[in-house]
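Consortium newsletter contribution from the modelling node. Members have asked for a concrete example of what our holo predictions look like. Here is one, prepared for the DTB complex that several groups have been discussing at recent meetings.
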Amino acid sequence: MKVELNSVGACQLLAEIYDMSRRTWSKEEILEVYNRPLINLIYDAATVHREHHNPDEVQVSTLLSIKTGGCPEDCGYCPQAARYHTEVENEELLSLSHVKAQALRAKSTGSSRLCLGAAWRNVKDDHEFDHVLEMVRTINEVGLEVCCTLGMVTQRQAQRLADAGLYAYNHNLDSSEEFYKEIISTRGYEDRLETIDNVRKAGVSVCSGGIIGMGESDEDRCAMLATYAAMETPPESIPVNALVPVEGTPLEDQKLVSTWEMVRMIATTRIVIPESVVRLSAGRTQISEEGQALCFLVGAGSIFAGDKLLTTPNPDVNKDMEMFKVLGITPMKPYKKGEQPAVNERYRLNDDPEKRIKWSRPGHKIERNEEKKEEGKVKS
Ligand code: SAM
Ligand code: DTB
Ligand code: SF4
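And here is the predicted structure:
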């Protein structure tokens, strides 16, 4: 596909050139979009954005690190990996009351979603997970969309989260399959895809995206987008993070991503996967408000608010709300793109044996049990 549109008010032409009705894009085709003259790419992405989304509404999420530091993984970008010497300490899981207070705070400052992050490789079926399920149920009751990012999950664990009222699960592919190996050695791309699949099967909204600025090529960025675009159902939300280079991590000396690269990546994501919400994620402290305005124009429909991401700084929420006012943007209400998940009694499974839903199959008898009952009768 040769993209030669010179952007003269051409929605129909756009649809033809980008063949928007299809689902799959090759990496090469995406790269052609990515490399378009920026001024045309901006126009085209903004046009696609307006066809699929309300451009003056932006979804606002607050991040909360419920379990900080001490992670056994070796993700080269991450200050929470135990093996790197960063300023992040290994902390205990937060208490339910603390999380509830933060949920109320997030709601009062305009967030529609609270995203709970844990520095775990994967979820374990232990009391800490039961505790997280309680957090999910509590935040859901507050009336916020609940998102979790807890590492790898099995389908059963994803189902338990769904039953507790989880709205979305964040699990990033981060980069292309090829480049992933350069950044992380303690797990593979397949593991990430499997968790995304488990989340999807549990009926939970998928949030999955990447990081730019780790030393990957433009081809790697586009290969990651090709993977998302080829999914039967692409993620509902795609975070685009600019690397926050943290002292003590292997990527501490990486050059900061420029605003233009961020605009290019968001615009390309917008064109290739038109229906998903693109999230302007980590790295906003290094982008001016004018730069962020461009990101919104080309398709960013969501941000993380609050002065901290998980462990690194983020713009002050009041400054963000002032920026929204200047731009005429309103924060999106919760559940605008879906229903509030109902809390299913099944979420208590493993939690309180007394309250478990009992196995039942009317009229069916288990021989062994019947024999035991008979034995009991004889004894008494
Ligand atoms: N441990 C879980 C996992 O890896 O899926 C959840 C938490 S992890 C911190 C969530 C995401 O944060 C990562 O997938 C990565 O995309 C992003 N992230 C971590 N450190 C970052 C950094 N320094 N700059 C930008 N994004 C970062
Ligand atoms: C995502 O894609 N970005 C967020 C969220 N999902 C969990 C995390 C960004 C973390 C930035 C580094 C930190 O603050 O520790
Ligand atoms: Fe652990 Fe997640 Fe950080 Fe990797 S990104 S080190 S899995 S917390």
